[in-house]
DNA sequence: AATGAATGAGTTTTCATTCAT
DNA sequence: CATGAATGAAAACTCATTCAT
């Protein structure tokens, strides 16, 4: 089976593992299956990876490396411009816009950002699915989850670790962190994870699904807006909640 | 190993399986482990259950039987009263309240409802975790997911299958269904599934976590309120979104 | 293959392992071979033993349990009688006999003892062979070796741990311990380990081999005798060595 | 991994194999481990050696070539002088010295010989360990053992193959051969094989161990002396044994 | 209701060896 | 000389399941 096909053997192994782990989970996938799918001998998998577990770690770590930097880049790109122009001020508990147009501008950028993030997670939906599965079914990947949840504010690797143009930074409360995680990160990841299944289950096609989900994200952002502020502290928000 | 302890053998098996499946997933749990955890011989497990798979189905079906009826009861209790009193009208695309007090009343009931639902899912967090895990890692439980997502409106078992007091019913758009599922069901389930881990990972204790999550749910509902309406059609909502 | 043969499955496994480990060594023996030899499935071996290594430990520990108690019993039986009759005194560095006949008596008993010990080790030659092999090829069994070598004088499990009739005990010097080990224990064990090979290699039959080896042991004891003393301190002996 | 270090690749392979085979045995050592230890690729090992087995044979044969010639040289140097001077006569069953001083002289030479032999085996203790291990755990090296045991008197390669100055030769009985092997060769080899472990296990340091073992060898020789004879026939010896 | 013994078919992992370059 | 990639065969070990009692 000496392989000199278009793709290199190691890549084929990684792809096969991604496919199978995301479909059936880590435990339910056998090294034999990966070998067969990758058109490679079992032994070669152990030539490149220390163990089956090592293959998994490899996949997951490649995701968690990329995902944060992407997120940080997007956010800063959206916000820094407005700050420099003096139209946005980052207060401890909120983003304050000086004029309605600034809100609009941010809103548009946020919309674009959502689309980009959604595309990113959909592209990586297999590994995200693996990530979800394995963060549930093993004690592992808690560190990766922390990063996502952003509980460690000070952590230089965290989503909001890097200062904005004006030297300030978000000051998320714990409650806001919970909100962000469970009503933004989690839906996003879950949507990606179930994406292929959703097309089958629901009557909606890919395009409609994507559209519906983006709308939902927008609705969500709307809930944080209060006049010309975007609130980042739950307590203030509560007063604002009508019911 | 004759066991005549307080709990009966079959219960011990179910509890052991719940614990292990929720921690490690179905595939990663061996019948041997279940037997050891339940302080029972392997053979006895096969006396009570046809197969390992049968144990799982048993657990999952016990959840999905309960969860819908619970949800439906709560909702009807919250809404039917207002309808009968003529203070709430169920329109095709929205709930319309006749007066501000009705909104308040509904809001209070919704708050209570959230607390009850949250407690319910937390109580059943192990099986929910199993459910999440298995719905991701196998083709199984798609039907159960459908029920939860409510895509099948006409299904008599679905959340909205039962008419309200005035003979009308919700008329969720597909988009709204997506929203409800990914920004309500999914966060709720995920919160429950990760609950025990969250206490460890975050600095927050159980009470604070619960509080933060309930606040988040309220924030979310707020985003659906528009004057005296609660919008159920995304398209309308969009116009309403400030940014 | 449900086995209800004369021998029980576990015994058959132990016997098969003993045979194969002693012939080819632990590493060179596969669990498959043991299974085949024992007429048992591989899985059954893992039903009774945690691992292949566990099978080995089982064999070795069963030997090292027996061997010491046997040795201690023999020695005490030989010596205590003479002590009680006042014909033997245990001095710090030597055994002193009061009359030539006592020396003769001891000598006869030692001869008998040698025969018994030799028979014992020959009977257990397979496990001894395993023991030799594995004490060389792994860090393991050092504790067992210590016991044999008797470096730990005070250890209650050691060969000379138990007092004699007159409340005294041997007081072996380190040097004497080395002598005893390398010129008594080691030859004995090695003889047993190579026994089956010796018959093939040499022209001698079993009986002659046994006889020759016993003679050698006697010659050795002779080297410790000095008048009516049996010296137990090397330093004294040295003076006594003619050349 | 291009290696142009001080040592050549082949030497590094041989050293690594010696180290590992002596520690863990042939079967338990993998070619991979040898390669890692030697800082060489696996493939290079197969460039220099036909197979893993070939590496072993290479090591063992290097020892067994040396060991005999060394032994013979030593012996002849010790004895031939005395024979030529007419102070030692080699009889069929004993060495007879004409005067006490000759015995002393021989004794001194023997002492020196022991020291040399001990140093030699200690230097080669790793290969001796391998030799012991493999002679036990495989049919191999029986021929080499024969050589050592000297069963094959007539073999031109054997220890006593070469005549002494007076044209005579030792005439070891089978019994004496057994004695020599099990109470001289075996202890020597075993001492060397366990040497490194002994330092750890016992409280004795290298120097003390060496000293104690040499003393033991002297004690042993003493047991063969009878007046001005050194007996080479067990039967005669027996009468001489006091007990 | 309960179990100890047993197993076939699988799993993950390792190994000695080869070969094109 | 030297190597990275590759492999078939076999290793150790696990698993869900069965069955006589």
Topology diagram in text:
The structure is a homotetramer of 243-residue chains.
Chain A: H1 9-24, H2 31-38, H3 42-48, H4 52-84, E1 88-90, E2 94-97, H5 100-123, H6 125-137, H7 142-149, H8 174-201, H9 206-222, E3 225-226, E4 229-231, H10 234-240
Antiparallel strand pairs in A: 1-2, 2-4, 3-4
Helix pairs in contact in A: 1-2, 1-6, 4-5, 5-8, 5-9, 6-8, 8-9
Chain A binds a DNA duplex (21 and 21 nucleotides) through residues 1-3, 9, 30-32, 40-44, 46-48, 51-52.
Architecture overview:
Four copies of one chain form a homotetramer. Chain A has 243 residues and is mainly α. Chain A has two domains: 1-49, Arc Repressor Mutant, subunit A, CATH 1.10.10; 57-242, no CATH class. Chain A has helices at 9-24, 31-38, 42-48, 52-84, 100-123, 125-137, 142-149, 174-201, 206-222, 234-240; strands spanning 88-90, 94-97, 225-226, 229-231. Chain A has a four-stranded antiparallel β-sheet. In chain A, strand 3 and strand 4 (229-231) form a beta hairpin. In chain A, helix 4 (52-84) packs antiparallel against helix 5. The radius of gyration of chain A is 21 Å and the shape is elongated. Chains in contact: A-B, C-D. The interface between C and D is large, with 63 and 62 residues. Chain A binds a DNA duplex (21 and 21 nucleotides) through helix 3.
Any idea how many domains of chain A?
Answer: 2
Q: Unreliable stretches of chain A, pLDDT < 50, 5 or more residues?
A: 1-6, 151-161, 235-243
Chain-averaged pLDDT of chain A: 78
What's the SSE pattern of chain A? HHHHEEHHHHHEEH
User: What is the first-to-last residue Cα distance of chain A?
Assistant: 67 Å
Strand order of the largest sheet of chain A: 1-2-4-3
- Tally of separate helices of chain A: 10
The share of residues in helices of chain A is 55-70%
Shape of chain A: elongated
What's the main sheet of chain A like? 4 strands, antiparallel
The chain pair with the largest interface is:
A-B, 63 and 62 residues
Question: How much is the radius of gyration of chain A in Å?
Answer: 21 Å
